[in-house]
Amino acid sequence: HVYEPFRKFDSIAFGESQSEDEQFENDLETDPPNWQQLVSREVLLGLKPSEIKRQEVINELFYTERAHVRTLKVLDQVFYQRVSREGILSPSELRKIFSNLEDILQLHVGLNEQMKAVRKRNETSVIDHVGEDLLTWFSGPGEEKLKHAAATFCSNQPFALEMIKSRQKKDSRFQTFVQDAESNPLCRRLQLKDIIPTQMQRLTKYPLLLDNIAKYTEWPMEREKVKKAADHCRQILNYVNQAVKEAENKQACYSPQT
Question: Which of 1, 55, 223, 247 has minimal CB crowding within 10 Å?
Answer without folding.
Answer: 1
